[in-house]
Amino acid sequence: MVAKMDLHPAQVMHSIRLGREEAVLNSNSIWLCIGCETCSARCPQQVEPAAVMTAARLLAWQKGIQPKVKEISIYYKGFVSNMRLNGKIHDASIAGITQLRTGQLMGNLPLAWKLFTKGRLKSPPLPLGGGRFRRIYKRALAVEKSAPKK
Ligand code: SF4
Question: pTM (2 decimals)?
Fold first, then answer.
């Protein structure tokens, strides 16, 4: 992903050390990071850039900073909605909703059809299993609300 990032992971870490919070939170890097953890596994200083990227995304979200990669924020919202509904992820639903909301659905229909005919697209689960996740989610929101603001 680094080829598309406006700050490389090492630059993100260095920017944080320099207190350049705005530069990090407004970068596209924190949204393009796919959390593969290669950087964390290979870091000679035992730094965890992948966790930092996740934390930066959450902070940007909490501060109301518009994500620099709108497809990814739409994907995340779809991910949470999917969990709330089903209690588990149905990849094809999230991908379909993301593509619909970003205007890319029509262009990807041939690929979706190909996957479907090869049996690679599973039908979505019945929306019955999300109760437990919704309770956990609600509790997490309450904890977050009651936490002291920094
Ligand atoms: S986890 Fe690290 S190596 Fe993987 S995409 Fe994110 S910054 Fe890059």
Answer: 0.77
Ligand 1 center–CA 37 separation, angstroms = 5
Residue 127, phi-psi category: left (phi > 0), alpha (psi -120 to 50), beta (remainder):
beta
Is 31 exposed, middle or buried, given 0-12, 13-18 or 19+ CB atoms closer than 10 A? buried
- Please write the tens of the pLDDT for every residue from 80-113: 888 888 888 888 889 888 999 999 888 889 998 9
Q: Is 30 in the pocket of ligand 1 (CB under 6 A)?
A: no
Q: Which two tokens stand for residue 37?
A: 């953890």
Decide: 62 in ligand 1 pocket, CB within 6 A. Answer: no
Q: How far is the CA of 29 from the centre of ligand 1 (A)?
A: 9
pLDDT value at position 150?
62
Domains of the chain, by residue range, sit at: 2-62, 70-146
Query: Which atom of ligand 1 is nearest to 9's Cα?
Result: 7
DSSP code for 150: -
Does the Cβ of 9 fall within 6 Å of ligand 1?
yes
pLDDT of 60 strictly over 90 = yes
Check residue 38 and give its pLDDT. 93
Does ligand 1 have an atom closer than 6 angstroms to the CB of 51? Answer: no
